[in-house]
From TrEMBL:
Protein name: ATP-binding cassette domain-containing protein
Ranges for region Disordered: 321-340
Statement: the UniProt record of this protein carries the keyword Transcription: no
Keyword Transport tagged: yes
Pfam families noted in UniProt: ABC_tran
SMART domains cross-referenced by the UniProt entry: AAA
Keywords: Antibiotic resistance, ATP-binding, Nucleotide-binding, Transport
Main location: membrane
One GO CC annotation: plasma membrane
Membrane topology: Peripheral membrane protein
GO BP: any one term: response to antibiotic
Amino acid sequence: MPERGFIEVDRVEKVFDVRRRTGFLRREVRRVRAVDSISFTVARGEMVGYIGPNGAGKSTTVKMLTGILTPSGGRLRVAGIDPSRERTRLAHRIGVVFGQRTTLWWDLPLIDSYRLMHRMYRIPDARYRENLDRLVELLDLGALLDVPVRQLSLGQRMRGDIVAALLHDPEVLYLDEPTIGLDTVSKARVREFLRELNTERGTTVLLTTHDLQDIEQLCSRVMVIDHGRMVYDGALTGLHEVGGAERTLVVDLERELPPIDAGPAARVVKVDGPRQWLAFPASESAAPLVARIAAAYPLLDLSVREPDIEAVIARVLSVTGGAPEPPAERETVVPGAPSS
Ligand SMILES: Nc1ncnc2c1ncn2[C@@H]1O[C@H](COP(=O)(O)OP(=O)(O)OP(=O)(O)O)[C@@H](O)[C@H]1O
Ligand SMILES: [Mg+2]
């Protein structure tokens, strides 16, 4: 049977009814449409970024894709399985990493969590050994296997969680903020690992992040969600073009000089002593600009700052006019009955 999409999401909705006390014997039910009729498909082997501002509905989507939450409407399939109806069967085929939480046993040494997963997922012994060795080496966790999870640093724990999610060879990996709070070196290591996992093992990856560099370095396709609605699905370069986002080149000169003339490609937006900030379109490469400045100015140092993901999204929304204000029906206040 031909596979349309490995992940199929068709007009999926999730509505939360949040109860709130407003006085003695009085409560209000606030209806939040966390995911509001979203549709997309992801092919096997794709690596897709899923981004959006706080509260946009990203984690809610991921939770529905794992079966933790049941959609209020629409149709959802992962590997042909309806996640909320066959959560256990699906669990053998997916891996999940929630950057803000851990699936590891807090008080146990790392290796004990893996042993428990070995049994929970009934991973054949040889495969478990092989996967464990490979993953531990790739993520450099060898020296930490006997350390209780609560003693690990955030970056170490995150790498530990990634290993845990992959021991059973899942076909798809959902990552919800896997680089949150990590230092540059750990981020680079995690990204490198994910790239390899995707290209060499063909693992399908859905990556939620607030770090645009994660997306830039890993995903050719990005989906943007805002207020529960899909506002963009396409190439990252396209997102930059739609959003007109700019990157910033920070230049340290040997001495104070008048604003750099970098031609039409960039403009100086700030000067502070020998340091100057130049804005240029995020869809362009920095290389020609750097070459041009290096040829004409006494340079000490350079760095490129990525546009803030929220700024890019805000621009996209203002251009496309997509899901701007929370629509009137999105948060409905229903006067509730007295507490029962
Ligand atoms: N269990 C829940 N009960 C009630 N409301 C919820 C629940 N989970 C999420 N929400 C609400 O649904 C909306 C979407 O939340 P979600 O966690 O999916 O956002 P997010 O895109 O992951 O945001 P962030 O970038 O902050 O992680 C928010 O308004 C949130 O308050
Ligand atoms: Mg979230």
